[in-house]
Write a structure and sequence with these properties.
single chain; about 80 residues; mainly alpha; two-stranded parallel sheet; elongated
Length: about 80
Amino acid sequence: MKRALSEIRGLLGPLNGVVHAAGVLDDEPMQTKTAPGMRRVLAPKVHGTVTLDTLIDEPLDFFLLFSSVASFLGLPGQVDYTA
């Protein structure tokens, strides 16, 4: 991530904003979800957000975090993705 941001800054200059829309789907009934599987689904959102926040020191106009339609529809098999 550090290298990617460095390349972007080298090509385009300082960042003005960030759109973070990473995600991993793993549909499975809640009763059979495992902690490692849930961590794998949550990692791109949680660790990605923390990593970007740590590596970006420019004053941004915005830092936009995307959610999923699952967050308000409660789609079957996506309890971890909804979280």
